[in-house]
Amino acid sequence: MSVTLEVIRKMQVIRLGLIGSGFMGRTHALAAHSVGLVFPSTAKLECELLADCDSQAAAENAGLLGFRRSTGDWRELVTDPQVDVVDICTPNHLHYPMAKAALENGKHVFCEKPLALLPEESRELAALAAARDCVTMVGFNYVKNPVITLAADLIERGEIGQLRHVRGTHVEDYLADPLREGGWRTQQSLAGLGALGDLCHVLSLTQRLVGEPGAVCADFQTVIPERPDGPVENEDQVHALLRFDCGAIGTIECSRIAWGRKNGLTLEISGSEGTLYFDQERQNELWLYRADGDERQGFRRILLGPDQPDYAAFCPAPGHGLGFNDLKVIEMRDLVAAIVLETPAWPDFAAAARIDAVTAAMAESYHRSGWVNVNRAATEDSEAQ
Amino acid sequence: MSVTLEVIRKMQVIRLGLIGSGFMGRTHALAAHSVGLVFPSTAKLECELLADCDSQAAAENAGLLGFRRSTGDWRELVTDPQVDVVDICTPNHLHYPMAKAALENGKHVFCEKPLALLPEESRELAALAAARDCVTMVGFNYVKNPVITLAADLIERGEIGQLRHVRGTHVEDYLADPLREGGWRTQQSLAGLGALGDLCHVLSLTQRLVGEPGAVCADFQTVIPERPDGPVENEDQVHALLRFDCGAIGTIECSRIAWGRKNGLTLEISGSEGTLYFDQERQNELWLYRADGDERQGFRRILLGPDQPDYAAFCPAPGHGLGFNDLKVIEMRDLVAAIVLETPAWPDFAAAARIDAVTAAMAESYHRSGWVNVNRAATEDSEAQ
Amino acid sequence: MSVTLEVIRKMQVIRLGLIGSGFMGRTHALAAHSVGLVFPSTAKLECELLADCDSQAAAENAGLLGFRRSTGDWRELVTDPQVDVVDICTPNHLHYPMAKAALENGKHVFCEKPLALLPEESRELAALAAARDCVTMVGFNYVKNPVITLAADLIERGEIGQLRHVRGTHVEDYLADPLREGGWRTQQSLAGLGALGDLCHVLSLTQRLVGEPGAVCADFQTVIPERPDGPVENEDQVHALLRFDCGAIGTIECSRIAWGRKNGLTLEISGSEGTLYFDQERQNELWLYRADGDERQGFRRILLGPDQPDYAAFCPAPGHGLGFNDLKVIEMRDLVAAIVLETPAWPDFAAAARIDAVTAAMAESYHRSGWVNVNRAATEDSEAQ
Amino acid sequence: MSVTLEVIRKMQVIRLGLIGSGFMGRTHALAAHSVGLVFPSTAKLECELLADCDSQAAAENAGLLGFRRSTGDWRELVTDPQVDVVDICTPNHLHYPMAKAALENGKHVFCEKPLALLPEESRELAALAAARDCVTMVGFNYVKNPVITLAADLIERGEIGQLRHVRGTHVEDYLADPLREGGWRTQQSLAGLGALGDLCHVLSLTQRLVGEPGAVCADFQTVIPERPDGPVENEDQVHALLRFDCGAIGTIECSRIAWGRKNGLTLEISGSEGTLYFDQERQNELWLYRADGDERQGFRRILLGPDQPDYAAFCPAPGHGLGFNDLKVIEMRDLVAAIVLETPAWPDFAAAARIDAVTAAMAESYHRSGWVNVNRAATEDSEAQ
């Protein structure tokens, strides 16, 4: 899935249209400006057009973020002939209409997660992208961490053997304080799911490393029902049992009220030959245990180094460390490469729709109080097209 | 639950009858000899009688382990008038008949975990102990770790507020290698449950710190169906969702095939004011996060020190560390104190029966593929007597 | 020392002239392009001119790195009227002549460390900068880590009291393998000092957090005297005892042959009220122990978050992590701010000259086999101007 | 240096005479009672006679600690014909006269560290022991940690190659609070050296793993000159540069005022093929880095397990952990084995005298403000006899 840039040979300019200039929009803009320096290639990503809620804010932010033009109406952006790829960094409930409009106009689309509020919307978008032959990508940035790429390589090479068990968490404490306002995040119509929707990154990691789950059994809980700005309409914490197609079983936990955990995206995967462990709070480390029967055996802390090409692009010396924003640069590189090479990007809308199918199955499991099979039929069709 | 020995004033000799002299029997013998030195009191624990599978082994081991007398027949031990407390360190399937016989003879009983193979047997033993007014204790030694006592104190004092979530594991790799023989552990008639039965320590920690779960939903898996010594009849790995009476929810995982984890008994408990984390592989450390809104906030690593009386008894300086065998000494101290003070020990047979009710509910949940309420009625009755 | 950008008000364009486009040059270019996005202000840093060893390489790299113009002769760059600040990213032995020429042409100068090969050269440059009223900065990027800023704040506020002891290391393994070529790094005429010159970052941290040492006693060792590309002319490992002006004592260790350590820049500072610990391999964490007499006391792991403004500029959520390249952006921000505000940057040439005085004293200490006072007279004069 | 008990064949009773029943005396008594259970052999260690400051205390403590007889006069103990080995657990300044008297009476001697207040006294005792053919041992218990034995094995097998650098610390905070009384520890006539004398364990580890240093250069500091109970007469913190005979160089640091460090006995040893790291606060772990050129390389955390015989004696399962008191049992086992096998124990008085020669050289180095050669001549003679 990693793309060697050496193969990118066609001279090409790709013009980016960005919707939204909040924190995430700014991060995308930064990545768009850096990607060519970090991953030099003959393709050139240009910051063409910025859309924001009104014309004035858009103009001002276009100046700050280095965009050529601006607009106060995102509908202008998705139809602009000078825009090749639409990048959606708006609140969750706007992802679906914007992505749909962009695809209908034949644009490539880069959309922040979650792709949509409803699984059928995600499936629809995936199908539309397939029909229009557009490159799509959803912003599961942590899956771009070279540590995850290394983990995937190790698993593929059989270093930990056949997978047996997975324990994944994405736990944070940003709403642990009951006096903190929930904003759009706690309203179902704007956010959809709560902790699970926001922190479903852990499912993109399992998708990459373990594959798809066929059945899930979940429990949801809204611990703080009322916040200063109104009632909380979605879950504060969720955990689930999963049965993966590959035969492994596992647990997943998401929480936005887990005091002390700031970016507790962790994964422990055990196999027949060893175990891998990862914690995004120490994002440059992978822990590996290999069962080779030696008294000197133990979990080894592998520190990211230039053996990993996506690390080497940032720094030729080991142990110097990547940060959160660097992962966005790698993500942007993958998007550009896919457009240039006319190959699918990853995770594309179909992959995201499969993640949304899992979260939907978890929600259903909670409401039905039992095991639920994941409904992937439609998304798998879309891939086959 | 911790007992100050200063209150033990009655001059008293307690005579121990030990059944079994394998590893666990030897550990108990060591603890029996050490307890008076580490926790000086006027009660004196004497190693009176050792029972083993045959007379010769018993005699030989009695010499090695410092017992006055020996016997090749455990039935002689449970009726011996010179024995005050029967200590059962035999394979799992013998716990029930031995404990029952000991109680019927009016003996106090210290039994290794699990108390019995079937939950109804555990309930029967708990009821019998209550009826005969015998002191009982089950060997959940990790719950005696002063770090757990400190955690319980912190929770009781509200340091982490109202409990919200629990993540517990007890994962090891002693049967991760498919070429390793399972022995009695993989035979249902001798061991009962597999990984869950063996590693239910994690449930004794949640019992101590979080309370009882009312409902569970579990998944079991036998990953290695066949070993060199025959088919495997119980589970290699199990995980479950739990709903605790106190309102917290949580997950529990047990595995005997988790490569690299040697004593992976871990617990993370989040509450409305903070979080606690514990890992038995670093048994002298407790991690505490307190939500007090300061920029200097973080998980702090509390290293066991003489602030904890049960640590101070071993060493007056902090950070010098207790080991596995020391926990058995604390356990033995609690048993002796309960007998002398004529109070219940903890965890007694009733507490163990409640743990067995949870594991039984988990097994039933797996077979019924859904949520199951824990049946505690009988055990709660027995306590009330 | 941290600069709030809110005070930067004057509309201003600053034009950068970069010499060298190896790894470090590329990192500087990336930072130059990002600084305005991460730290928006009315000052604008423009990539004006790139100098490289020959015209063709310069032209090609100017394209890749986003510079307007290029030259094959650095002397053209330092005299170019369109260049406001000269940024020197060349091998060590060229720092001195280039910085001197730039200052003589009235340019502001940003120079990678070490400032010069000889302490008298560093002193000369510091004096020259003071005389010409140029803003200067030396690239001790780790000192820009917001974790270090937090540590400095904590020390200033007395959180760990009066400083008593310091243990600093910068140990790596890039030349641990005797079959690896030393290149310019092992030749005295090109690199000056060996491990100490390369890894003197640790001294910039102590300078920031502890102050200046008055006396040192050091031991040097060249462990691998011969490499495939010739004899090794400088030290592989060095360690020293230090006596700081503030009364604290400490040890410093630098090594380029410490297997397994990739960026082992660590610092432990003990004071009368607590202790701080830092490890650049986990660059987003600061460990703090406060002696407040509570049984719950322990080292707490503070994870960098938006409480620190220099972190918040990159990410509004805690625990998401900065990387190596982000530190260069902060450094570039400080340089720009100093030029705009017409204040000294830090660490400027005078500060770097004091570090070079310490390393020179260490080398002398080794040769004289005893304690040596650090000769700071000249550099302190230059500050006073 | 490790002794397999299988070779102990002679039926033998060894009678212990213990002087002192404070914390350390109690720890020794506990070890004496446990050693036969943990390490079964045909030799039997019997607790024969306890000496304490007065007859009444001695009698009372003899009861508590399981000794047959008691005396209020240690001179009676060292001449008692029923005592085979004299075990000295008294304050530092009494070690020399007691050990001398015991040797003069032909007793084997187990003495807590430091062996004496003056290096010439240590040398005298070593010579006396050699002349009388007595088994001697000094209580450097941490060197008995099976993790250190594993480290020694790894070094001996060349796993980390030729040793290049050592960084050792033993830092604690027991006198970090200036309001805490120093007691005998801060009085030169009773304690001799301060932090260095108390925490010279780190030198026993380097002695075991790296060998002897030939030259040292040290700095001493008394940070808190006055305590509630009077002036402080010895150092609070000390650090030193060392040159070992094997060619490695290193630093050593001892402190009793390092807030937050409770038992900070750490050691990092780098060699031509790898690095070892150890921290007594996590006493069951050894970290090993092997330079074998693989991208999966990293420090591995080896958790003590039954591969190490001295661990297996306590517990057959890995990761269950030894504690401080267990190390004393191993130490006692080595003493018993040496007496039975008529071989030297380790570290004997000659080894301790060499450590005392190093600490004396450090003190001299501080007073002379420069490098000092370690005077080992006499102690090496004593070994040769």
Gyration radius of chain A, to the nearest Å? Answer: 21 Å
Largest sheet of chain A, if any?
9 strands, mixed
Distance between the termini of chain A: 19 Å
Give the ordered list of helices and strands of chain A: EHEHEHEHEHEHEHHHEEEEEEEEEHHHEH
Description of the structure:
Four copies of one chain form a homotetramer. Chain A is of the alpha/beta class and 385 residues long. Chain A has two domains: 5-139, Rossmann fold, CATH 3.40.50.720; 146-282 and 284-322, Dihydrodipicolinate Reductase, domain 2. Helices cover 35% and strands 25% of the residues of chain A. In chain A, strands 16-15-14-13-7-12-11-8-17 form a nine-stranded mixed β-sheet. A six-stranded parallel β-sheet of chain A has the order 3-2-1-4-5-6, with helices on both faces. In chain A, helix 5 (119-132) runs antiparallel to helix 12. Mean pLDDT of chain A is 93; it is low at 1-10 and 381-385. The A-B interface holds A 160, 164-165, 167, 169, 173, 176-178, 217-219, 221, 223, 237, 239-241, 243, 249-251, 253, 255, 257-261, 270-275, 289, 291, 297-299, 369-371 and B 160, 164-165, 167, 169, 173, 176-178, 217-219, 221, 223, 237, 239-241, 243, 249-251, 253, 255, 257-261, 270-275, 289, 291, 297-299, 369-371. Strand 16 of chain B pairs antiparallel with strand 16 (299-303) of chain C.
